[in-house]
């Protein structure tokens, strides 16, 4: 590619667009469906029960400690399919980019999207690029959609009291990393902080546990926007029960706690982009957590349980109870 | 909805987002999958051979004579699935909107997206909303993805000389409408022009002909960005043959010709958003055109044929030949 910047012609759908696709995208997103450059991709699925999901990504900054918008756009949609009980198989990507965007950065983003898909066993099979005038979009936006195949037997039973709540890893790292990156809080600048890396990752490592414990897992959701608190509140509302989390049990890194302490942000509301909240039947958390740890989710923990009543609450480390309320309060915008 | 404008909280994924979805989107996009507000939708497809497509929409202006970005985002992705030989079944929509966007306009766009889906027999099953700061996006961008079921028997044979070229309706109306709207060329301002309406429409009306003539149809593509000329050139390159179009046979409305004449824009390069180019075996065009006309495609016509050689050309009304070259020349940006 001779050009240093995205030109408006790159979005006309003509020769420049084809060149952009052939020179940058095809070599990286290496699969037969994408190669054909057709209007849509012909796919073969193993089951007629499929899952379909979409999310738009507008994260700022585009590159952040631990990842970038390309990786996030792929893993985020994969995780939405997994949360609904599917194995993610195919991804589409619609890119909106402003004229003048650096081709080198464009390339890096496509490469990291492709790498994330590859490592998660997912094919990027179709895509689209639109170029808008300088300033008409903030750099680059990516909207992905995904197709997954349903894992048999999952989510057979409804949620009931005494069900247990699990999280697959330490929380709030994505939100904290974005906050830190955006506010130029660098290592050592503030006592107790380090460069926090986002937890962004596709959760395909969960498939083993999902299949093994398909009779026991009742619900899953990835705690993205609104964090663990938002998932707990939505779950309580949906189930018509109360969700009681234990502060002591929630895995969270010291440096995330430090940042939260210094800035006054509640880490329970900070987004994860590589964690899953799992609800399982009473007494089943121990086995599931063990299975998760064996599959590399070393911080996985049982963090609470379902009770009669309503709303979400936190049993604090000091032994008190704090009710979680919905995040009308301004959180961090454009974290994903 | 009490608010007049989209607020940044509407994109946080918390209570404001849920309110926006529950009050504006669910009542309009009325189907069980969307109602559940899950991370992804569980769907049942009839065949394991599915088609998957995505496109981003950044059209400017958002409302134009004949349609708006909501209708366009739905019909465009439906048409991409149809072009590949599928019946469109499910659509996802990822919306990126700037803070301060008028709720009334947001509503109109969602309503026209939903209406287009309904009339095309397609369900909008999942979606996402991201809100960015004022000015970080130009109003609203919509990226849709679609899933279709393959129609059996289509595209069995490769393209060969003497195959015939059909277009399902008059060309260039979408591109001309956008150009006219953007340049405030109003009815009567210039001699020979009227308010040109976009041809934007889902092409589900083609299913009957596609099924009836599945043994004869060899290729389809909707002439969007780059218009009829771009499709002819791509087809010639793909097939390793030449595509000869007849200027006299190409259906185009007088007022589109008028606008083209006055502005110097070549209408062969102007986008359609509700037309399909169909390649069929020798001698089959007559029956297909008759079938199309019977199904309401009153301007459908046989417009050319495939020959040995390469490149795309136009037999002019005066009897000459003009070679079509790729549209590196600036066309109209953000027409879709």
Summarize the structure in words.
With 336 residues, the first copy, chain A, is of the alpha+beta class. Chain A has 2 domains: 38-150, PurM-like, N-terminal domain (60s Ribosomal Protein L30, Chain: A), CATH 3.30.1330; 156-328, Phosphoribosyl-aminoimidazole Synthetase, Chain A, domain 2 (Alpha-Beta Complex), CATH 3.90.650. Chain A is 29% helix and 25% strand. Chain A contains 9 helices and 14 strands. In chain A, the strands form 3 sheets. Chain A has a 7-stranded mixed beta sheet. A 4-stranded mixed beta sheet of chain A has the order 2-7-5-6. Chain A has a two-stranded antiparallel ribbon with strand order 3-4. In chain A, helix 3 (69-83) packs parallel to helix 4. The longest helix of chain A is centred in the first third of the chain and has 17 residues, at 103-119. Chain A is globular. Chain A starts with 14 loop residues before the first helix and ends in a 12-residue tail after the last strand. The interface between A and B is large, with 76 and 76 residues.
């Amino acid at each position: 590619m001779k050009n240093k910047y995205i030109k408006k012609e790159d979005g006309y759908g003509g020769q420049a667009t084809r060149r952009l696709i052939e020179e940058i995208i095809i070599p990286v997103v290496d699969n037969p469906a994408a190669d054909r450059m057709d209007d849509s991709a012909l796919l073969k699925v193993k089951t007629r029960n499929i899952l379909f999901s979409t999310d738009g990504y507008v994260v700022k900054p585009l590159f952040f400690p631990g990842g970038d918008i390309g990786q996030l756009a792929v893993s985020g949609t994969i995780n939405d399919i997994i949360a609904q009980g599917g194995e993610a198989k195919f991804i589409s990507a619609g890119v909106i980019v402003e004229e003048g965007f650096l081709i080198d950065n464009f390339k890096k983003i496509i490469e990291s999207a492709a790498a994330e898909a590859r490592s998660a066993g997912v094919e990027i099979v179709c895509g689209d690029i639109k170029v808008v005038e300088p300033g008409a979009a903030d750099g680059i936006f990516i909207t992905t959609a995904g197709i997954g195949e349903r894992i048999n037997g999952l989510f057979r039973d409804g949620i009931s009291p005494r069900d247990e709540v699990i999280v697959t890893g330490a929380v709030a790292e994505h939100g904290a990393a974005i906050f830190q990156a955006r506010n130029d809080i660098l290592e050592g600048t503030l006592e107790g902080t380090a460069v926090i890396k986002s937890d962004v990752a596709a959760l395909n490592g969960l498939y083993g546990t999902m299949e093994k414990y398909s009779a026991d897992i009742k619900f899953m959701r990835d705690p993205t926007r609104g964090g663990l608190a938002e998932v707990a509140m939505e779950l309580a509302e949906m189930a018509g029960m109360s969700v009681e989390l234990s502060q002591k049990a929630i895995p969270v890194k010291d440096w995330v706690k430090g940042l939260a302490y210094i800035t006054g942000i509640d880490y329970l509301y900070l987004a994860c982009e590589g964690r899953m909240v799992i609800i399982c039947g009473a007494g089943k958390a121990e086995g599931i957590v063990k299975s998760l740890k064996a599959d590399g989710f070393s911080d996985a923990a049982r963090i609470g349980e379902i009770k009669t009543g309503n709303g979400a609450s936190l049993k604090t480390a000091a032994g008190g109870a704090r009710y979680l309320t919905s995040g009308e309060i301004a959180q961090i915008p454009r974290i994903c």
